[in-house]
UniProtKB/TrEMBL annotation:
It comes from the Bacteria. InterPro entries: Cupin_8, JmjC_dom. This is Cupin-like domain-containing protein. Pfam families: Cupin_8 (PF13621). It comes from Pseudoxanthomonas gei. Gene3D superfamilies: Cupin. Residues 117-274 form the JmjC domain.
Amino acid sequence: MLPIGKKIRELTGLDPQSLPEEVLQGSEPAVLRGIAADWPITRAGNESAQAAVSYLRGFERPGAQPVVALVGAPEIQGRFFYNGDLSDFNFKRENVPLGVALATLLKYASQPRPPAIYIGSTTIDTWLPGFREHNDFALGGRDALSSIWIGNRTRIAAHQDVPDNLACVVAGRRRVTLFPPQQLSNLYIGPLDFTPAGQAISLVDFAAPDYDRFPRFREALQHAQVAELEPGDAVFIPSMWWHHMEALETFNVLVNYWWRRTPAWMDTPMNALMLAIMTVRELPPEQRATWEDVFRHYVFAADDATAGHIPENARRMLSPLDETRARALRARLLQRLNR
């Protein structure tokens, strides 16, 4: 295990139907112990892997489209990652019916060196309709995307997500390791546009860190927080916190909720990053410094004075954004990119 001294703060005795806003709007992570201990799926998971599978299969929709399963050889030891030169991945994607994937996990559960199997980010309302009627949180009216994650002993490299995340273990156990967003440069992040599952990941193997290759990772560990989650425990991961997830049992199920604190019409900031790489990063140093000041003025330090000298009716994109202005701005941007 990594030498991490700080534990993620823990909260107990919370009501899953009345989660406090100071948690859901927080900027610090928190473990919510036992918050879903009474969910039927948690009780089934505590009984056995077979009971959990039987419970999940009770919500299968006949003729449903297959799920995407990541499958890797036993040699990857559950670490879904790149190949040696980062030209490909060390796993394959397979489209299989959910029931087949679950049966395969049970088949390999007793084997000492099974293939690594991971069914990630599968939308519950699509593949398990009715599941949330008995296994759900009240999130204060938030329009959250609820997904299920199922697998054996898997390791998911440290990565960021733009939405806030409430992730709940309902079968098996997981170790979660978190880093503040500011540890970006110390986590040695891989390619932005070629990733195992959509998000850029840390290239550090948490099971065997190569400190010669990644020396700043020692500094990242000074800021890390860790927790082991039992069935029924959840962890709140604020937006853009780095998180490494390790499943510790031969059968594991996690349910999570993602939501953003911004209107649905706002694009992801990752699009702005990609455009900045394309248009700003390769400028001469003095021009890049000028644009750093421009971004500071119009974006990072923008306030009422930024456009206060312009008549209000003439501020256009410098006015506070709403859905109509955002749509017009997006159309203008697409027009410029496509010319």
